[in-house]
Design brief:
InterPro entries: Phage_zn-bd_3 (IPR058158). By secondary structure, the chain is mostly beta strands. Helices cover about 10% and strands about 30% of the residues.
Length: about 90
């Protein structure tokens, strides 16, 4: 796969193991891991942020405009994904 969806694994799965792939996506000069993330694409008049899930993406869009994630009480992870404050392990 290409930068739009890079699937990688550290080693081949052994018999009896489930193969786990890491899905790495890139858009708007941002890269994130995981198919459950929700990206607000600049090409479609979005802000370019990546949210932990589609519900957070929905919360940040009102009447076709993006709201500031900080104003919604969200926190940004070290990798740039916006999460609920309660999801923060620190």
């Amino acid at each position: 796969m290409t930068a739009a969806g890079d699937a990688r694994r550290d080693r081949p799965a052994r018999r009896g193991e489930t193969e786990v792939l890491t899905l790495r996506l890139t858009c708007c000069e941002r890269t994130w891991v995981g198919p459950d993330r929700a990206h607000c694409c600049r090409r479609h008049r979005g802000c370019g942020h990546v949210f932990d899930d589609p519900d957070l993406w929905d919360d940040h869009r009102r009447a076709g405009r993006c709201l500031d994630p900080l104003a919604l009480g969200l926190m940004q992870t070290a990798t740039g994904v916006w999460i609920r404050a309660l999801d923060n392990p620190h």
